[in-house]
Amino acid sequence: MTTSVDNDRSLAGRRVVVTRAAAQSEALREALTARGADVVICPVLRIEAADVDAPALDRYRWIVFTSRNAVRQFRSLLVAAGGTPTLPADIRVAVVGPGTAAALAVLGREPDLVADPPTGAGLAATFATVGLPAGTAVLRVRGDLAPTEVEDELARIGAVVDVLTAYHTRTVAPPAEALAAVRQGAIDAVTFFSSSAVQGFEAGLPEHGLHSRAYAACVGPVTAAAAQAAGWRCVITAAEPAAPALAATLAAALATSA
What would the pLDDT profile of 166-218 be if each residue is shown by its tens digit? Predict the structure, then answer.
């Protein structure tokens, strides 16, 4: 059956930069090219496992994950410790965003709580709907550059939060072909899935000249705020934190600016 999306060529003739690593960018690349976009893969970050041990989980009632990388790296820690890559049944799991929720499959779990909206404040508000007794022990698994909003908000509502930095985010030099494409200037938008991706793009291409003539298409309000702080004038945020929603939001924005 042919759907309206199959016939949607709303990004035809548009060139869009994807800043995620090639291994993580396939869903967004497909969503963009399905709408006719010319996609430039320009990874600006790489993930390195942190030199930490898996924590003792018996003291926690909740574990909070805010990225797919956090889930994957946490699984690696469990495996390295000689344990099974699953979570005890008596530990509940909270996530920020559907992508992170889907990633939980590698731990043999589905989320007990999904933040709505997908922010630290949204997580705290969602916890309020299920009840989080004061003093509840929570483990937040994150990368070294992740914003502290999640643990700050959880502490505000009375949780006792431990932070496990499971991975480090490093800036990498963009591929030569991607660098050339960006410097040519024929770019309509750059997509960002995290505030650290914004920082990595700015560091890797400090003279890109796109702030005033291209869209920064972002997943999540924290990422959008980082783009605005970096000087991007046209910042849009996906209606949902997922690749199809980002592509659709970008198509709508470019259509109004044509």
Answer: 999 888 888 888 888 888 878 999 999 988 899 999 998 888 999 999 999 99
Position 82 pLDDT exceeds 50? yes
**200/21 Cα distance (integer angstroms):** 12
C-alpha closest to that of 72 among 141, 161, 150, 119:
141
Could you tell me the pTM of the whole model?
A: 0.82
Answer left, alpha or beta for residue 21, where phi above 0 means left and psi between -120 and 50 means alpha.
beta
Which residues does residue 114 pair with via DSSP β-bridges, in sequence order?
Answer: 95
Type of residue numbered 119: T
Q: Which domains does the chain have, with CATH numbers?
A: 15-44+173-257 (3.40.50.10090), 48-169 (3.40.50.10090)
Burial (0-12, 13-18, 19+ Cβ within 10 Å), 163? middle
pLDDT in tens, 239-249: 887 899 999 99
Query: Taking 90 as the threshold, does the pLDDT of residue 161 lie above it?
Result: yes
CA dist 109 and 193 (Å) reads 24
Give the CA dihedral 192, 197, 199, 201, nearest 10 degrees.
Answer: -80
With 70 as the cut, is the pLDDT of residue 112 above it? yes
- Exposure class string for 9-22: b at 16+ Cβ within 10 A, else e: ebbeebbbbbbbee
CA distance 54 to 33: 40
Structure tokens at 145: 């550059």
